[in-house]
Amino acid sequence: MKLAQALRALLKRRHLPDELALVARGTSHSFLLQGLALGLGLAVHVGLARWMGASEYGIYTYVLAWTALLSIPVGLGLPVLVVRFVPEYSVTEAWGLLRGLLRWGWRWIAVLGFGLALAGMTLVVVFETEVTKTYTRALLLGLWLVPLQACMRYAAGIYQSVHQLGRAYALPVLRHVLVLALAFLYGIAAQELTSVQGLGITGGAVLVVLLAQGPALRRAVPAPVWQAQPRYEVSGWLRVSVPLLLIGGFWVVLHETSVLLLGTLLGPEQAGLYKAASKTASLVGFVLAAVGAATLPVVATLYARGELDRLQHLLSLLAHVIFWPSLIAVLFLVLAAKPVLGLFGPGFASGRWVLIILAGGQLVHAGAGAVAGLLSVTGHQKKTMTTLGWNILLNVMLNLAGIVTLGLVGAALATALSITLTNVSLCVLARREAKVDPSFVFALWGKFG
Q: Is residue 12 part of a domain?
């Protein structure tokens, strides 16, 4: 009854046809491709888990978690940085700065990415122990995925900065298709697939996509850029990129900490079981990702104009759009947890409770709306960075305690609790600093003052 009354009250308020139309158009462009990427990404993990088995799949996911973590400093927030500066430089026709930014970004990724890969290989060999010996060969190959993944995200950011969202969202789709095809063909030929071979196939797929996108990526950038003399404002770029780097990196740490600790403390098979549940639970966040990406430019515009009432109305409407499909997804995963995890192969259904707990955490994340993005585009990225930093430390401590006491379930509880505390603290920060609240709870019952 209260829910129906809240919805009626919300819909009686002033409508936002222009803003909603913009969000709807942006969502329609991204919904299909993001959904396809998410579905194919899950299919990749299902296929690799079945072809490799739990132990080899665990090694594969453990190494991928390390590459994701190490790609944070290599990426330096560049995918978001170009979205921030490329439109500005295009409008002001600062072609030299635009070319300098693009060149500086590629050089940073190349130098730091390959340097980090070489340093990582040295450390893996020199400090090999009985615990890490299982992962040595896979790590030696997988470390080269760090610069490749950073390059792909940077390419996607460049496409977004010039409003070619279709191409940006198509990059992971192409990668997943290639990985599936190559892994399937290799499996038929060799009758087996190891973690090392899986990592080689993944790296090869990323490299092929990047090389194929080279000419199109160059054409996407305004033509005058390539005739301009490069100019550099590195200190200004770093002031913006470092907070963005840390904010974006937090979400990687939050989702990969459990896999890394499980793989180190309990072995690759447990890491693989957890990753299968985690990857499946990520389906809950699909609507938030699709709607949030299209919403943030509108949020930035309304906030810059000072139209906070209008902005809050939009956020509250979108909170319903995001939450209810996410709830349906959670209910489906709760009811079908065993058969869904069974797709990964024998033994994976034992992670049923891990999936249910992580899906609950993802529902809390969806219920908070695109709060981290909202804080970033409204100029509160430094306070967001500080809040997320404390939550990173808490997440690591909770995971250590949870894994030691309860194993896989402990890791899931720690991650779900970290997600909950993070989103609650960000919503409180948004209310205090931005004077708006994108959460579903506020959409139902909240009010300011």
A: yes
Asked if the model's pLDDT at residue 27 lies above 70, the reply is no
What's the farthest any 2 CA atoms get from each other in the chain? 67
Produce one character per residue of 224-248: b if its CB has 16 or more CB atoms within 10 Å, e if not.
Answer: ebeebeeeeeeeebeeebbbbbbbb
Please tell me the total count of domains within the chain: 2
Q: DSSP alpha helices (H): ranges in 127-194?
A: 136-142, 145-161, 165-190
- Asked whether 193 and 48 are in contact (CB, 8 A), the reply is yes
Judge whether 64 lies within some domain.
yes
SS3 track for 54-66: HHHHHHHHHHHHH
Tens of pLDDT, residue by residue over 301-344, are 788 788 888 889 889 988 998 999 999 999 999 999 999 999 99
| 246 and 212 together in one domain | no
SS3 52: helix
Range of the domain at 137: 53-232
Distance set, CA 119 to CA 73, 202, 413 (Å): 14, 21, 34
